[in-house]
């Protein structure tokens, strides 16, 4: 099983790779040539997702938010063992009897990396900026939408006054930034925080360098209150091709590779000095349909196929999807069949449709449904609508993700049998057409936090862009009154059981609208070099994942291997770390079989 650093827990995610000429195989990765410090230990992580922004006010991709977890403190954190709320920048918190005023005690031992003290004023400024500047609320505005007033009566006290009760007050996943740096920013919509280095923060790491679609470099924050990380440098290096990342791992050019396909994982199980971790994931893999892109001002835009506004068409498409085949053939069993929006890992909020509600795999029923809805086959076997327009759809696919491509081929086959055409548009960057509404369907998925509020909020009407020219926090333009009503209720419900019931009702409503089809919950399948990383913490600590955690535990706790053997207690190299820390034996899969998207492209790109 994974060796854990004493008294430390872990949770984060990264990307990187270092030039082969700069590495000593069998030892911790060394620094890039020319930096004058070849003896320092470097932890390199390969990532397939490019950074959308180094600004915490704008970043939404997993790789970016993971970097912010490393570089900025949040008010609270999640324990690596069981994801319970623990202190972060705040050491304590207390609500008023009516739950409308929350008082946080800010720790006195947190300093910014430029030496200045971190205070309650930094937190108050961060939240007030999000409350008063719509651009600053782009990424995390749902957390502050209900805030009435935020003050810092003294350096150690933060007071948040709410308009109405809010259930996320111990799970405000908002990076706190240094006021003395960020108050100089003019336009938050354009400032990406990527021009001056090192970037001032108070987390365990400090960002020292960044090159677009190449790498992000970080060094330990020596003044971090929990203690500095043990590696001298952390590098997240971008790899567009997953096989190239695995090859770099074999050569010792990178220390860690996440999001392995079954074929890649199987090929690594007998490799020397490499360990494979296979753990239940915190992500879902879904099909999203364009419900008609629109802004909050009521204006519609984009080029989504109008037939997808018909619930009968959406239901027929999803009835033709065989989830079992996707889990067995694409994920090779390294996933669980999907239905609800929250993965089973989060048992409190997990939901499954009732038998009568479930959209089961039934191609014959799908064909009958389309016939009844007026989408009949013409002489050439093509489904056409009453307007004579054929049902030919486009689906956005991440070019870096073999899962998208593999599932796309199945969809072409399954939907083709219904007389429906599908063009799989595999792009390096799906963000632009997605934001413009220029898609019919898309491969979608998000990492879910222990508190599900954020992933639920991205389907509310409030998440839509203000105008077609603006950027919103919406996932795919869903705006449903009943869903919004349920979301508002869960947001103010403090009773855990009652709130969990409302969250399940939200998932049920989202399921019934038919705009989202969750196909699978992929495992976290990842690998690292034991001759570079001696120990590292998983989350949860008993059989959990390393990449994509809900905190900074993994890379903060990682210890460099001091010898060339990578031996951490006699376990054979290339062993599998299985679900619940049990060993897993994989059957090798054909080289042509790939897997799903959330593995190489985390979150919507």
From TrEMBL:
<dbReference type="GO" id="GO:1904680">
    <property type="term" value="F:peptide transmembrane transporter activity"/>
</dbReference>
<dbReference type="InterPro" id="IPR039424">
    <property type="entry name" value="SBP_5"/>
</dbReference>
<dbReference type="GO" id="GO:0042597">
    <property type="term" value="C:periplasmic space"/>
</dbReference>
<dbReference type="GO" id="GO:0030313">
    <property type="term" value="C:cell envelope"/>
</dbReference>
<feature type="signal peptide">
    <location>
        <begin position="1"/>
        <end position="31"/>
    </location>
</feature>
<keyword id="KW-1133">Transmembrane helix</keyword>
<keyword id="KW-0472">Membrane</keyword>
<dbReference type="InterPro" id="IPR030678">
    <property type="entry name" value="Peptide/Ni-bd"/>
</dbReference>
<keyword id="KW-0732">Signal</keyword>
<feature type="domain" description="Solute-binding protein family 5">
    <location>
        <begin position="86"/>
        <end position="457"/>
    </location>
</feature>
<keyword id="KW-0813">Transport</keyword>
<protein>
    <submittedName>
        <fullName>ABC transporter substrate-binding protein</fullName>
    </submittedName>
</protein>
<comment type="similarity">
    <text>Belongs to the bacterial solute-binding protein 5 family.</text>
</comment>
<dbReference type="InterPro" id="IPR000914">
    <property type="entry name" value="SBP_5_dom"/>
</dbReference>
<dbReference type="Pfam" id="PF00496">
    <property type="entry name" value="SBP_bac_5"/>
</dbReference>
<feature type="transmembrane region" description="Helical">
    <location>
        <begin position="575"/>
        <end position="595"/>
    </location>
</feature>
<dbReference type="GO" id="GO:0043190">
    <property type="term" value="C:ATP-binding cassette (ABC) transporter complex"/>
</dbReference>
<dbReference type="GO" id="GO:0015833">
    <property type="term" value="P:peptide transport"/>
</dbReference>
<keyword id="KW-0812">Transmembrane</keyword>
